[in-house]
Amino acid sequence: MMWKHKHLLGMESLSREDIGYLLEKGNAYRDYLERSPKGENVLQGYFLINMFFESSTRTRVSFEMAGKLLGMEVINFTTDASSVQKGESLRDTVRTLSRMKVDAMVVRHRSSGIPFYLSQFLPFHIINAGDGIREHPTQALLDLLAMQRSGVDFSHLTVAIIGDILHSRVARSLSIGLQKLGSTVIFSGPPTLIPRGVEVLGGEVIYPVEEAMERADIIYLLRIQKERQEAGYFPSGQEYARYFGLNSNAMDRWGKNKKIMHPGPVNRGMEIASCLVEDERSLIEEQVSCGLAVRMAVLETLLQEGKES
Fold first, then answer.
1. Using one digit for the tens of pLDDT, what is the confidence trace for 120-158?
2. DSSP per-residue codes, 175-195
3. Quick one: which of 85, 80, 170, 191 has its CA closest to 128?
4. Is 73 exposed, middle or buried (0-12, 13-18, 19+ CB in 10 A)?
5. Does the pLDDT of residue 280 top 80, yes or no?
6. CB atoms near residue 157 (< 10 Å)
7. I need a labelling partner for 193 at 20 to 30 A (CA). Which of 44, 185, 210, 288 fits?
8. Is 269 exposed, middle or buried (0-12, 13-18, 19+ CB in 10 A)?
């Protein structure tokens, strides 16, 4: 197929064919990661900047590794050691970097829409690594790849996304991607964390949480941030674990067919019982490996096939 996009800003702009194309490449890179020594030179001579205005381990490190495995030169931008601390605006900072003739920028920012804003005036490829509560497209792609490699049929798949839907860019991107591939999406969690009108994303809201989990082939648990508890969205971590978390008794009752996923980092004993994180039904660690593979696929596709205007 012909790749039509200069940037990767969200799942909304990708077609079913686009998603399938990236998953096919990602699957090949996932197999490649099992071999050693590693190192491709398909992007040798290209420069990548990781520009993270929010803390991250999985996303930042996997983009760095992906770039280096493809032969790129990778620069990690940190705000605490930049002119941002001197009062320089975001626009001036990124325009300065653009004059150094980099080829791609990975952007993570607490404000929704920043990657799109940058794409309007920067001359190189922009990859959204998470913007506010809007989207996180490479997370959705790696989740889809992990599902695909577990043997699912997307056209007959039901995924229950559980937890903080209100603030989750992961839930938004994943639900969009799943539905473009023909899957059914269920939302559940504390009612205070399910936004009104969430059905516009195409999923069904089901209470109680256990019923949503029971109906699903894959239980996708979202991370609960400490500030949600402090803001009064639910009484306590113990209460959340009791009423909305996944425990081993429920999984044992449902048997071996259900899969467990989580974008990480995991609050063990809260969203999920600790013993289930490494359970044979868990895809959580495979998601990390698929993340590296997908980000290699995205970088190669944009740098070699992404349109320039």
1. 999 999 999 999 999 999 999 999 999 999 999 999 999
2. HHHHHHTT-EEEEES-GGGS-
3. 170
4. middle
5. yes
6. 18
7. 288
8. middle
